[in-house]
Amino acid sequence: MTLGLGGCVVPNNIDAPPRVQSVWPKSWPETDVFYVTDRGASTTPPRMGGRGENWAAPSCGRLPVTVPRTGAVGPDKKQLIFATIGPAKYTIEDCAPPDPDQAENEPAPLEKFLARMVAETGLNCVMLYVHGYGTGFDSAITRAAQLSRDVSSRCIPLAFSWSSAGQVDRYVSDVEHSSYAVPLFHTLLTILKQQHLRIDLVAHSMGTRLTLQTLVLLRRRCETAPMIDEMI
Q1: How far is CA 78 from CA 67, 68, 72, in A?
Q2: Number of neighbours of residue 70 by Cβ within 10 angstroms
Q3: Is 149 in a helix, a strand, or coil?
Q4: From 18, 69, 119, 189, which residue has the greatest number of CB atoms within 10 Å?
Q5: pTM for this prediction
């Protein structure tokens, strides 16, 4: 079944911490979120996940995320606490996809990363999250962790974070940057399927636009084999 949801919500400001909690009533241990992104490293202000809004060469990695339950408060019993991202378990700055002009002597960095992801988790499916307009990297990562927890997913949480500016007034530039990400997203889906992984995809807002552009590209290239098992 395929269901695309396109609407928009009030976006997260990239400079504000993500306000994410889980619907589950009990506390949960941290969730490791794997990611692939075309964002460059952040400069100022510092961000939990270490990535900014500028478009750059692909990078990837693994981040631990702690998502508290809904209504969780701090020691003072007054202030709500929200999801936090811990220090990266690893970051691969050069996560380049395969180069069709190069001889296939060894796997490309992106292929190695995804193979490592599967080996480390022992799972054969991914819950792939593609965020929408006005979303910073930290929000994308914490939302992926929240979704994984809230639906009790038994798949690998994998976030594809394109270089949204994370600003209310940057919609036009976000449209442009989401289009830049189509080739990388196409390659990501292709490699995931080559590794025989089930793909459950959740695309939100402009992430739906990016996903549909990618599916059109697949069709134009006559790649008719199903890439996505379930899409929301």
Answers
A1: 18, 15, 9
A2: 12
A3: helix
A4: 18
A5: 0.85
